[in-house]
């Protein structure tokens, strides 16, 4: 049985990844800053170890005889930002990846592959232009964090480890991600476009995020950056109409940009960001998306 170490295993994506690994007969080891909570959420996993990702290396018991590492740990960005929040966002990604790679450097038998989460925030605002894995990087806060995050992860390649950076878009799923933020007003018929509604949204079904991670794990020829975004991004106004249609609720209550700024502060800039990101390299690597259209994804999740 091949052993895979997962960080961030109790998260929205991480739990689904752990379940899928077990379904495919991988041995799963999880590290968490709160192992008791992790044991409650991941009851079928026996090997759960304590790890403070910002301050220490991985426990040696967790790194022995590894086939792969899937690194998903990171502070959620979905709340009002202030200086402390932004520092936690940065440290939870960059310092954790530094400590992880340093831990792998000290192991005698190296894993074959490191699949490291990243985000399409790396591209910054794309406006109406479509961006792919080969496009220029942004210069805002999240773009700089993502670039440093990937730089630290890529250092594992110097150890002879294959490295894949999965740049995750706006994830659609039940129990977390984008829908957890937007469903409450839509369910009572109070949903609507954000700002002008013209901004592009590069969405992706959670099954495809997990699918791309597994594709990266299982295929030796896959390395470098892969966009985890569906092939058909939509503008916010189309997202609004489609979500309302699937829920059979009106979506006629727009939220002006200034209201978002009052409610969310600087985080509102991310919410309003226009990102038209395509998975060119992901599809070229042989991955076949399960959900190509927004309507099919939402109907799968909400009906």
Protein architecture, described:
The chain has 303 residues and is α/β, with parallel strands linked by helices. It has a domain at 3-169 and 204-229 and 277-290: Rossmann fold (3-Layer(aba) Sandwich), CATH 3.40.50.720. The protein contains twelve helices and 13 strands. The protein has helices at 12-23, 35-41, 60-63, 83-105, 141-154, 177-187, 206-218, 236-247, 257-264, 267-271, 280-284, 294-302, and strands at residues 3-7, 27-32, 47-50, 68-71, 113-119, 130-131, 162-168, 170-172, 200-201, 203-205, 224-228, 234-235, 276-277. Strands 3-2-1-4-5-7-11 form a seven-stranded parallel beta sheet, sandwiched between helices. Strand 2, helix 2 (35-41) and strand 3 (47-50) form a beta-alpha-beta unit. It is globular, with a radius of gyration of 19 Å. The two termini are 37 Å apart. The mean pLDDT is 94.
Structural class: alpha/beta
- With strands numbered from the N-terminus, the spatial order across the biggest sheet is 3-2-1-4-5-7-11
Helix fraction by DSSP (H/I, runs of at least 4): 40-55%
Share of residues in strands: 15-25%
CATH level 3 topology of the domain at 3-169 and 204-229 and 277-290: Rossmann fold
Instruction: Give the number of helices.
Output: 12
The tally of beta strands, per DSSP, is 13
Give the termini separation: 37 Å
Radius of gyration: 19 Å
CATH class of the domain at 3-169 and 204-229 and 277-290: Alpha Beta
Main β-sheet, in a few words?
Answer: 7 strands, parallel
Which stretches are poorly predicted, pLDDT < 50 over at least 5 residues? none
Mean pLDDT across residues: 94
CATH architecture of the domain at 3-169 and 204-229 and 277-290: 3-Layer(aba) Sandwich
């Amino acid at each position: 049985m091949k052993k895979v170490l997962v960080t961030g295993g109790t998260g929205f994506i991480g739990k689904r990844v752990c379940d899928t690994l077990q379904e495919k007969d991988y041995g799963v080891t999880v590290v968490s800053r709160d192992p008791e909570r992790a044991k409650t959420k991941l009851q079928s996993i026996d090997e759960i170890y304590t790890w403070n990702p910002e301050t220490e290396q991985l426990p040696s018991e967790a790194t022995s005889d590894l086939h792969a590492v899937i690194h998903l740990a990171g502070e959620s960005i979905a709340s009002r930002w202030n200086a402390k929040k932004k520092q936690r966002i940065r440290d939870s990604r960059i310092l954790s990846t530094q400590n992880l790679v340093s831990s792998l450097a000290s192991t005698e038998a190296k894993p074959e592959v490191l699949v490291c989460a990243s985000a399409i925030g790396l591209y910054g605002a794309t406006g109406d232009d479509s961006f792919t894995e080969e496009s220029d990087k942004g210069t805002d806060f999240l773009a700089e964090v993502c670039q440093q995050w990937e730089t630290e992860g890529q250092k594992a390649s110097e150890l002879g480890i294959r490295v894949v950076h999965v740049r995750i878009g706006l994830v659609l799923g039940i129990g977390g991600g984008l829908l957890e933020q937007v469903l409450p007003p839509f369910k009572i018929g109070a949903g609507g476009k954000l700002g002008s509604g013209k901004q592009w949204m590069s969405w992706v079904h959670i099954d495809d995020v997990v699918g791309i991670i597994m594709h990266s794990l299982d295929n030796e020829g896959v390395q470098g950056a892969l966009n985890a975004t569906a092939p058909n991004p939509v503008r916010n106004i189309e997202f609004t109409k489609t979500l309302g249609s699937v829920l059979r609720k009106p979506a006629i209550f727009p939220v002006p940009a200034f209201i978002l700024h009052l409610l969310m502060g600087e985080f509102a800039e991310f919410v309003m960001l226009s990102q038209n990101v395509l998975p060119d390299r992901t599809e070229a690597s042989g991955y076949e998306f399960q959900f190509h259209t927004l309507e099919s994804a939402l109907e799968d999740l909400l009906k």
